[in-house]
Model the fold of this input.
Amino acid sequence: MAIVPLSGALRDRSGKGPARASRRDGNIPGVVYGHGQPAVAVTVNQKEFINAIRHVEGGNMIVSLKLANGEKTALVREVQLDPISHDIIHLDFQEVSLTETVRVQVAVHLTGLAIGVKDGGGILEHILRQVEVRCLPTAIPASIDVDVSALNIGDSIHVRDLSVPDVEILTDADSTIATVVPPTVIEEKPAEAAATEEAAAEPEVIAKGKKDEEEPAEAGEEKGKK
Done:
């Protein structure tokens, strides 16, 4: 993984007010922590950071952050977005050493067309979309590609099936990454059975009309006999 050069500045003050002021000036407030050092409040230019992140493959970005007190090699741990505007409002940088391993999440991408989907009409389910790995910062893969072409209906690929050079995969080996399930079949009932069920479902109608009409006549006959 390439290391992206990035210019930054130290912040004299922290808090919501100074952070808002930084954003008004076209900067993104952030913090650098790690290596047993106290956290340092910083800002980076918004346009420079957005332009840099556009050229990074994958969800992990390593920067060489130039500050007034020197350069720091750091992993971008968190990019906070405004829930409405989706503008970047804060950055978390973790200082790292290029000779020490780090733990990160890496995306899993599926490639190919499963034979169970192509020939059997099955459905490919992508269950696990990220795995946790441990490796040197420069060895972090942009993503882990998994070929599903050989999967038939009922077949699965698990974390234990992954193999990435110079990378230790920490996610549970039994976790399922992808599987092909049978197609959903809707069984149609014969017309006669459907008609029988429909008739059975209709409410019973009690013939009250005729009885009600006969009662007055019977009452009249009884009166005449008296």
